Every structure is written in structure tokens, then in C-alpha cells.
Amino acid sequence: MERMRKLRKSNLIKKIVVTLIYIQVAVLAAQEQATSDFVLVAGNTIASILVDKKDAKVVTIASNIFATDVYNITGKKPVVSTKDSRSETTIIAGTIGKNKWIDSMIAAGKIDVSEIENQWERYSIQIVENPTSTIKKALVVVGSDRRGTAYGILELSRNIGVSPWEWWADVTPEKKESLSISIEEEVSKSPSVKYRGVFLNDEDWGLQRWAALNYEPETGDIGPKTYAKVFELLLRLRANTIWPAMHSSTKPFYSYPENKFVADDYAIVIGTSHAEPMLSNINTEWKHDEMGEYRYDTNSETIKSLFTKRVKETAKLEGIYTTGMRGEHDSPMIVGEDDTDAQVHLLERVITDQRAILKKETKKEPSSIPQAFVPYKEVLNYYQSGLKLPEDITLVWTDDNYGYIRQLSNPQEQKRAGGAGVYYHTSYWGRPHDYLWLNSTNPVLMWEEMSKAYEFQSRDIWILNCGDIKPHEYNIELFLDMAWNMEDFKESSSVKEHTKNWSSREFGEASAAKITDVLFENNRLAYIRRPEFMAWSQVEPVTKEGETELTQFHYGDEVSARIESYQGLIDITESLYTEIPAYRKDAFYQLVYYPVIGASKLNQKWSYSFKNKFTAKQGRQSANAFGALSEEAYNRIRKETDYYNTVLKNGKWNHIITMAPRFLSVFAQPATSTITSSEKTSLGLALEGYQMEVNDKVINSYADVLPVFNSYTKSTYYIDVFANGKGTVNWEAKPKADWIRLSESKGTLTSDNLEKRIWVSIDWSKVHQGENKKEAPLGHDFQLIPPSYKVNSAIEFISEGKTTTIGVSAYNPKFEALKNYNGFVEDKGYVSIHAENFTRMKEGNEANWKLFEGMGYTNKVITALPRTATPLVDLEEIKANSPVLEYDFYTFNFGEVDVNIQAVPTHAPYAGIGVRCAISIDDATPVFVDFETTGRSEEWKENVLKNASVQTAKQIVNKAGKHTLKIWMVDPGVLIDQVLIDLGGWKKSYAFPKETVKK
Questions:
Q1: What is the pTM of this model?
Q2: Strand pairing partners for 802?
Q3: Residue 28 — φ and ψ, nearest 5°?
Q4: Is the pLDDT of residue 22 over 90?
Q5: How far apart are CA 453 and CA 906, in angstroms?
Q6: Per residue in 411-445, pLDDT tens?
Q7: What is the pLDDT of residues 199-219, one digit of tens each?
Q8: Could you tell me if 541 and 513 are in contact, meaning their C-beta atoms sit under 8 angstroms apart?
Q9: In a domain, 154, yes or no
Q10: Do 410 and 428 reside in the same domain of the chain?
């Protein structure tokens, strides 16, 4: 019996071991099936691509694109065939119901398409053994529809390392002798947004000239050859829609009959902008001498004839018909009665007539035909005034042309059958100023606005106005990647991760982090002021350059700081260029180098011109050098633009980049002042905090004392030493106290080195500390500080036997309350706070504060989410239920103060949700702060030029000492950037001064 038990036990163990082996083998087999390498090129083996001639043309087009990609890597090109032949490695690509081999595999149970069948633009990729009698193994790409198949095929191109910008930015693939694809069985999701694409706009200075003069001279325009390359790019980026170029410089899209067939071959859906109803380009198709006035109230039959013609021409093609009507050239429509009701009623009549045309010419119900209504500019007012819009028309909301969406669907509108979408700008021509040259829209801002739109159910149409495509490459890809799968972009940090992955793909992992940092710093500086806005000029009407708001004598000199920030970008970018592999240098030049150098040099051009004018007023010889540096920056832009157009890729991109779109003043070389002097050289001094230089001839001048140094903020200030007159001047600076530190204490000014900035700081360990008291005022003025809390001394500047004395005063009290204090403190009559650096954060009942990284003046803003939370407007409810940010700060003064809150200038999503927060100091009743602007007001113009909305609320600081600022959520989604509590000492500056945090 014992033997039998042992034998049974032994057999059981064997069975268990065998079973475990079988399980392990099965797991390994499943893993091998899920992830395996499919050989494309190895020695004489070259995979072929099998498609069905009955399938859509885009399937063959995508297959040929992929075959060319393989060729560009290996020098060997797969054959795209419609005939089955004996092969070791074959790619079978096709659409369900359109490919006989695919359908046969489905019928035989070799592939399962139940998850994607009858779905919108989905695909499946997998390896199938013995898919046909003659093929041993195939890589099978199956699409739910024609675009799904194309996207699946081009996913293979991504898999082998081919960038979507392979042609448009010359991202040359890495060469390899053999090539295989590492396949994980993949089933794509449905796209987050149904129709996704771009609007080619304001093409006069780039895309149209390049096409007409370089790429497609046989057409002399943006024609079918150019559009084919655009459509290929859209497929690679998984987009499906285009609004074609429509300026008067370009012939209408449908004037070239082949254009619409090329679009259909590439499976691209044609739509049109807010100013082009029913796929008609009014700018160039409306002939006044033949058709009369473009007015629906007096000439509707002629207008309907144009609409009818276009619908007949496009009835069998995929399109999105823009309904409604605007005037010519992006203007309001003309009506006989100049009142809103008349305009609304006429617009309703236009839409009714348009839908009747659609029904008649397509033989379909309008509800089954894609249509869009774009409430842009004045049309938004008509919609808000009660315009009745059929439920099946998609509402395409717009931004205000500067990246801030004006309105989104309210809860009732979110139920509309037609859904909603967004028309968004990264390029714009119009007031208050164009930005047509570089891509200066912050990508995190774009993410914030588009994620908000997605949250409010705008998921049917996303269109990006990208101007000439170049140099908007990155933002185009980000926009379309979000539209493809918004689940990948749940956090603001997702954008930086996307940028890093993009940089790694294009330029290698070794450089990706550095490139990402360069791009984010470039974005931060452009957010503070776009390069195109640096002349402080405006358009409509076009004005000359204005006075800069950047201060040159307060807060460390904003102009010099901007120059230095951009110089840092230049240095890193030029260094990176040397590290990029040779085969990717052209791509780096287009995607990183030119945009960064261009933005940097335009900023330096204007910043040096500001320095020139400022120093010339002080009689500094250095003014001439600053003028020369401004001109040098201008010449660098011209040099790089010439290289881009005429040298890069042997002139492939000639005419694509214009450094002066519309020839506005911001792009010109600024006028500069010249200083001439026959006097013997002498030393001049200029101090931080004073607009004029030190004047030794004025007795009892107050311009000989630096601002007060504060021990709690560790202040530093500068003194400029400069040459007056011609010649060489030696100088020496001698502090009269051992606690005064200088960055340099002597030197020589020459014609090559006409001035030097000396930074003054304090060694606080050597400064006598004041009495131990609870409170003491730090006056805004040097003379107002109590003697017991300040220590006075001076710096003597000696040159050519002459001594000039500069006063130095250090504020160094000993307050027990600040001994272990961590928070903000008053400095020179203000407290400056970055919103993200709160002391405490208290959650609300429905919402909470959250940090967004990568936007705002400090590269971080804070907002209350979710955006769908209920606004709180009752003060008691706010105090009980609203999330609150608390900031501890300490003041040396007291009285009525101005609390300045800087927010991102967003708009209310819809009526009932505003752009408000509430603030209070200590236990005061919260005061509402409202950032909403109306229409295109002067306030709105200033806000979008600065990317900032600053609102002020009065509060009382009842005593010197510790206090707490509270910021309460009123409306969710308000983006708080910075705070400045002004006790009367804040001087004029563009941005708030740096944080006054206790150090």
C-alpha cells in the first residue's frame, strides 16, 4: 500500500510538472504571438505588400508611402501588389469588406475584427500564420474603414522610426542594412475627436509663394501636387480634415478640378472656414462685375446659385459644409437693417436655404450630412442673441485669435446631435497685432484650452489654423495627437513628456532632455511677450513702434534680463547643433534652431534698441555699441532666413520663410541713436532705481543712493559704470564698510568695453543687527527708515582723481516673529508672490486647486478643478465650501493696500460660469475679482498682448507683522499666475518683481 501511495504521489507530481511545462510553453507561445519581429528586409528577403484593387485608393497610397519609407532606410523597396504570390514575408493590408484576403481570414476565424467592425477609423495589426494557401506568415493590417486602414499601415512607418515630418522637415531616417518590425498585437481606439485637421491660412508670404515659385511652378499656385504632400502629412499625423488655403493670393481650391480628386484619393475631408459658406471661397469666387453685391438680403438668388454649384460638385465626396454666412474678407455680413435682430433673422434664413440646397442636390436628409456653424467674431453675438440653429449642425467654437477659447457648449448644448468642435489659432493676421512668422503659441496653453474644450464635450471637429505649416510643426503634431487620443494628455506634464518623446524620436535620446528644456524656455519667454509683439506696435490701423513697458532701471533691469535669457538659449541651441548627427542637422535647423534663433534675435534686436535709446539719453558712449548689437541681431535673422530659403536642402524650401510678413515695423531694423563726443573721457555712473545717471553737478541729489537692501530678501542691486567722451578710463570702487560686496572693484573702460555692470550685495553676517522688536516700518524711501533698523555706508568710485560717493543702506532688524518664519515678506513697499508657492491649500467640497506646469510668467499656474464644478457666488457658501489658497506674508508697514492678481486671460466657458476668484487678507470679507473682458475691448487687447490679466482689489493690512492672503475659488478653471500686494512701493514694470520670499 505504501508503494502504491508513493507511486500515485510520484505520478501526480509528474502530471503537475507536465501541466506546468505546458502552461509555461503556452504562455511563451502567447507572448511570442503578442510580441515578435516581422522581417521587412534581410539580405535578399524583401517583404511584399498585398492590397486589393477594389479597396480605396488611400490604402494603396499609404502602402506605397510605407514602401518608400522602407527604401529610404534600407535601399530596398517592398513591392505593392494586388496579386497573391508565394512569399515568405508579406504584409496584407485592407479594409473590412473591401479586401478578399482579409474577408477570407475573417470567415476562417484567423482574425477577429469584432472590436473594430463598423467603427470610425480604427485598425488592427497582428501576425497571422498561413493566412492564404501560398503565404506562410503575414503581417496583417485591417481597418474598419479606408482611413483606419491607412492609419494602420502608416503606424508601421512610425514603428520603424520614420517621423511624420520625414519630408516636411527633412527628418531623414537612419540607414540600416536589415529591417524588421517588433510587433505587439494592436487594436487602435476610436479617435478622441471625429474630424481632426488644419487650416492653411495667411499663406501669402510662405506656402503660396513656395508652391508657386519653387515646388509647383507648373501650376504657379498651391495646386494638386502641393496638396498631395499636405495630405500625406495629414495621414502620417492621423488627421482627416483640411480647410484649404483661401486668401486672394491663392486660387480657390475647387478651381483646380484635380484638387478634390486628390483629396478623395487620400481620404481627406474638405471643410472651409467661417468666411466660406458651403465650401465656397468668397474671397476669390465672388465676381462683383458678374454677380453683383455679396448681400443675402438683396441678392440671395445669385448667392444660392453659387452654393448650389458647389454642392453639385462635391455631393459624392466627403466634406463638411460650413453653414451661415459672413461678409467678404473676414468681415461682418451686410444687411439692410443695422440691428442684431435683423441680422439674426437673415442668418436663420441663410441656413434654412442652405439646407434645402443640400437636400435637393445630395438626395439626402441634411441631418445625415456633416455641417458646421462657426460662431466667430460678430457671429458669436448673433448666436448668443437667440439664433435658432438646427440640432444636427456641429457648433465649432473659436478662440479669440490669441489662444483663449471664447465660449464652449453649456450642458444643454452638449446634448445636441451635431455636437461641437473648436477652431484654434497658432497663427493670426489681425488686431491688436499679427503673429505670422514664428510659432509663438505656448503648447501647454493650447493643451489647457483644448482639454477644457474636450471636457465640455467639444469632440466632433478640431481645426488648427497653422498658417504656412512651417514653422508650426511641433504644435501641429501636438494638436493632432491630442485629437487622436486625449487620454494620453490628462495632465499638464503630459505636454513636456510629449515634447521629450518628440525630441528623442527626431534627434536621439541623448539630446532630448536638453532640447525639451530649450523649447520650454523659449515658450516661457514667448508667453511673457511674443516675438512679434516686441515693437509695442499694433495693427488695424498699423502703427509705428511704441515705448516698451519693460523697465530698464527697476527690478534688476527687465530689458537686460530678457537679453541674457535669450542669449542663454542661443548658446545652448548652437551647442546642441554641433552634437546632432549629420543626417538630422537639417531637421534640427528647421524644427529647433531657426525658430529659437529667430525668436532670440528679434527679441535682442528690439531689446538692444531699447538699451540704445535709454543709454543715449544718459550720454553713454555704449549707446553706439547697443545700436550696433541691434543691427547685428537684425542681420543674423536675415542671414538665417536666407540660409533656410536658399541653402538648406539645396533650396528645397526657397520662399517658404519670410522674416517680415506684411512688412510690419516689428520686423524692420529699429532706428538707433548715435553718441558723438569730443570731450575727454570720464567715468559715469547709473544706479538701479533711477532713470537718469548720477549727476555730480547737482548738490544734494537723491540719485546717489541705491535702493534699501533688505536682510530678509537678500536684495542685490546694480551700478553701471560707463565711459563719457572718447578715450580710455580707469576706475576703482572702494566700499567704506566690510559688509558691502561688489562683483568687481576695478577695471578699465575702452572703446571695446564701454561699460560694466557692477552687482552690489551684502554680507549680512557682518552687518550690525537692530533691536529685538515686534514690528518696525521699512519705509518706501531711504529717509523714512528708523535709524535703529538701518545701517548706512557708501561706495566710493575713483577715476582720474575724482571721487563719487554712492550711498548704501542695509535694513537688518531683529524680529522674534521672523526668527523661524517661512513665507513672504515686504520689500520696498510690496510683497511679490508666485501663485504656485502657497503656504497652505484647503480643499473645497466639489473642487480643488491644481498646478499646471509649463505656462504662465513663472512657468506654473494654479487652477481650481474640475472645470465643471459649480461656481460659488454666495459669500457664506464660498467661505464654507470653496477651495482656498493661503499665503503667509509679513509687512513692515500697514494701511490700505492694492492686491494685484495676475491671471491667464481666459474667457468664461458659457453663461453661468465666469472668470472670477475672491480674495481677502486675514479674516476680512472676501472680495470678488473678475478677469472677464468684453468683445475686443482695449483691456482685452492689452491682455492678449501680455498673456496676462491683472485685476486689483483693495484690502486693509491693519498692522505691521504677519498676515495671510486667501484666494478663494468662485469659478472653476481660473488660472492664477502671480500676486503682488502693493503697500505703495511698487514702481512701474512690465512683469511683477521677483518673489519677496524670506531667505
A1: 0.94
A2: 799
A3: -60, -40
A4: no
A5: 12
A6: 999 999 999 999 999 999 999 999 999 999 999 99
A7: 999 999 999 999 999 999 999
A8: no
A9: yes
A10: yes
Residue 697's pLDDT is 57
> Cβ distance 116 to 72 under 8 Å?
no
C-alpha cell at 14: 509528474
Count the neighbouring beta carbons within 10 Å of the beta carbon of residue 952.
13
The sign of the dihedral angle between the CA atoms of 632, 633, 634, 635 is positive
CA atoms 80, 84, 86, 88: torsion sign: positive
| Contact indicator for 99, 113 with CB cutoff of 8 Å | no
Residue 892 in contact with residue 935, Cβ under 8 Å?
no
Same domain (yes/no): 953, 970: yes
> What stretches of 22-131 adopt beta strand conformation (E)?
35-42, 45-46, 48-50, 80-81, 90-95, 123-129
Summarised one tens digit per residue, pLDDT across range 369-421 is 999 999 988 888 899 999 999 999 999 999 999 999 999 999 999 999 999 99
CATH number, position 896: 2.60.120.1620
Sign, Cα dihedral of 453, 458, 460, 462: negative
Q: 221 is in which domain, residue-wise?
A: 195-490
d(CA 371, CA 356): 13
Residue 40 DSSP SS3: strand
Interval 136-172: pLDDT, tens: 899 999 999 999 999 999 999 999 999 999 999 999 9
796 and 846 share a domain? Answer: no
Mean pLDDT of the region 848-867: 97
Choice among 316-330, 442-456, 683-697 with the minimum mean pLDDT: 683-697
Q: Quick check: is 199 in a domain?
A: yes
Same domain, 335 and 463: yes
User: Which residue type sits at 919?
Assistant: I
Pair (244, 122) in one structural domain: no
Which whole-number Å values give the CA distances from 200 to 153, 218, 284, 328, in the listed order?
A: 26, 21, 16, 18
Residue 703 CA to residue 725 CA, distance in Å, equals 21
- Predicted confidence at residue 680, as pLDDT, reads 80
Domain match, 332 and 377 both: yes
Q: What phi and psi values does residue 628 have, to the nearest 5 degrees?
A: -65, -40
Same domain, 411 and 542: no
Yes or no: say if 901 and 852 are a contact pair by the CB < 8 Å rule. Answer: no
> How many structural domains compose the chain?
5
Residues 357 and 216 in one domain: yes
Tell me the average pLDDT across 477-498.
Answer: 98
Last residue of a domain, one of 462, 490, 518: 490
Residue 932 C-alpha cell reads as 472677464
Q: 133: Cβ–Cβ under 8 A, 6 or more apart, which residues? A: none
pLDDT band of residue 11 (cuts 50, 70, 90) is low
Between CA 106 and CA 101 the distance in angstroms is: 9
Decide the pairing of beta strands 824-825 and 802-811: unpaired
The CA-based angle 204-208-213, given to 5 degrees, is 120
DSSP per-residue letters across 495-552: HHHHHHHHHHHHH-HHHHHHHHHHHHHHHHHHHHS-GGGTT---TTTT-------S-S
CA distance 409 to 457: 7
SS3 132: coil
CB 39 within 8 A of CB 248: no
Smallest CA-to-CA distance from 518 within 559, 567, 479 is with 567
With residue 423 as reference, give the H or E element that holds it: strand 420-425
Per the listing, cell 543709454 goes with: 615
Residue 495 falls within a domain, yes or no? no
Instruction: Decide which of 434, 457, 490 is a domain's last residue.
Output: 490
Residue 504 domain-assigned (yes or no): no
CATH number at residue 718: 2.60.40.10
The residue length of the chain stands at 999
